[in-house]
Amino acid sequence: MLAAALVLTTCSCGGARLAPEIDAERLAPNDGGNGYQDGIVIRNAIIVGGDPAELLEAGSSAPLRVVLINKRDAPDRLVSVSAPDAFQGAQLTGGGVDLPVRQAVGAGPEPLVTLTGATRQLRIGAFVPVEFRFQQAGATRIQVPILPPSSGRAGFSPSPHPSAPGGPSPAAPAVSPSPASPAPAGTEASPSPAPQEGGTD
C-alpha cells in the first residue's frame, strides 16, 4: 500500500494530494498515471502504444485509457483532454464523458479518449503530460506513461480479439445417456423376439 500511495501522490502534477477519504480506501497499485482534482479521482491513465520494440510514429493516434471516479456531491463531466507536448489533439467519446456521483467510469474495453496527431516519435516507457479538464472540478495535469497493449495492469486489458476463422470450437459438454426406464412392479421385461431365418412352412 505504501508504494501505491507514493504513486498516487507523485504522479499528479502541482503537488495535489488525494483527499483523506480517498487515502483511506484500498486502491490497487497500477502501472498508469494517477491524480486527484477537487473530488475527481483519476486512476491508471495509460497511453496505449505498440509493441515494446516499436515506436509510436509521428502523426499517429493512440488510445488513452483511464478510470475516473467522481467523489463530489453532484455529477460532473470530463469536457476536454490535451497533451500538447506530444499530440495535436484529442477526441472524447461522445464529445464529453459524464461522471455520475460515486461511480467508476472508463473501466470497460473501449477507451474514453483517443489522442490524435503525434508530433514526434514516442517510445514505449516514455511519459507524456496530459491535462484533464472537468466542467465543475476544473483542470489538472498528470504524467501518463506510454505502455504496450499487452502489459498486465489492473483495470485495463486490450479489447478481446475475435477467434481466428477455422479455429477450434469449444468442446461441447458431455451428455450422459438416459437411464433405462424401470419395468412396472410385478412384471418382467420381455426380450424382443429374434428375427426368423428363412421362409415359413
Automatic annotation (TrEMBL):
Chain segments carrying region Disordered: 145-201
Organism: Planomonospora alba
Composition-biased stretches (Pro residues): 159-171
Composition skew (Low complexity), residue ranges: 172-191
InterPro entries the UniProt entry points to: LpqE-like (IPR007410), PCuAC_sf (IPR036182)
Protein name: Copper chaperone PCu(A)C
